[in-house]
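lol ok so funny story. i was supposed to be doing the assay writeup but got distracted and ended up predicting the structure for this chain instead. priorities right. anyway since i did it might as well share w the group, maybe its usefull for someone
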Amino acid sequence: MADRQMHVESTLDPPVLIMRRAFDAPRELVFKAWTEPERLKRWFGPQDWDLTFCELDLRPGGEWRYCMSGPDGAESWGKAIYREVSAPDRLVYTDTFTDPQGNGIDGMPTTNVSIEFADATEVLSRTQFASIDDLKAVLSMGVEEGMRQTFDRLDALLADGDH
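and the output, tada:
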């Protein structure tokens, strides 16, 4: 079985955050978990956070709008605009923090994200930031631990056999 720990690295020139994780499931299933709203609602977000809003139009130019709600009532809204959808190999999108109406929030970073689904069911997430300050801001928000928990939840979903 592949190493199922999340591996993280970052670079400053350009400012990029790279996260890599293997899953014990066919890549087609991992891709579906990443692109179908009912599946996303079951795993996307850190531990104790729920995806309470999820609308997805999976095509280039389409949007994925979502809201993660925390145990203390906090909400984190976001919007991704797909630039590339290549099932089951790759997703490329621009991601931004938004208000509940989908408007970008001033001062919050917008990122360019590519998710690659390899044959060995390794997921590679590469997030490029506009600046080093944006990368540092997201790291200071706890994105690394949040994604570790998120990937653990995806792993549990895939392992439970209820796909």
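The chain is about 25% helix and 40% strand. The mean pLDDT is 91.
back to the writeup now i swear
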